[in-house]
Amino acid sequence: MAKTKQSSPNLPGINAAIIMDGNGRWAKKNALNVTSGHQRGVDVVRKIVESAAKAQLESLSLYAFSTENWSRPKKEILGIKKLIINAIDSQVPELINQEVRLNFFGDYSSFGDEIIRAIHQAEKITAFKKPKLKLNIALGYGGRKDIIEATKLIAKDIKSEKISVDDISHETIFKYLQAPINELDLLIRTGGDHRISNFLLYHLAYTEIQFSDTLWPDFTDEEFIKCLEEFSKTERRFGNRTI
Ligand code: FPP
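^ thats the input. predicted complex w/ farnesyl diphosphate below
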């Protein structure tokens, strides 16, 4: 019998994120260098973005490079930089077709001018007013750094009397954080580890978290759709009593 393609649940308004872990182990398992693992990882990103757009998610935020990743070997960092520049070059036309708005967040200045120019150009040409999906890529991002920088900005605005101490609320803090989302509904981490690794710390308060043992380069759109289905069945109580 012919295998029918899984249909994805419709999840409009849902903000999802992925910690794409396991490229290095996948490369080792397949006797390849780590950059080949990251390359395969980028290929997977393309398919998952397409599935996320089909599922009508509001946003998908991907952890591409953390503040801690700067301590990796120079060669690996250079490989990731080249892959991102190539991915922007080759994928932006497809993102435009799918009406996906691309947005990078984090401090990626140390990657150099070439990547900064490519990112700004890609963000400009995908700046749909009503995108089908917001695709946010965390690059040189750390949740703690985001909270520290937001706290400094709030302190400065209080000092200059732009806001008062009483203006500080949950919503205000979101406004000062760099990550371009508020509540995060679903976080998926691949690669078998059960940790947050300094990702969207403030945004994770009531996030449903799913862990997959699959190494990111082996992660399929079928598995992604299964994650979305499981999420859609979850009763979210936000600390409330429902029984
Ligand atoms: C984690 O695997 C992966 C990374 C640190 C880099 C991921 C980057 C990409 C897939 C490129 C993304 C590009 C775009 C355009 C979104 P790891 O190397 O930490 O795996 P390991 O835990 O097995 O060593």
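Strands lie at 15-19, 59-66, 100-105, 133-141, 186-189, 208-211.
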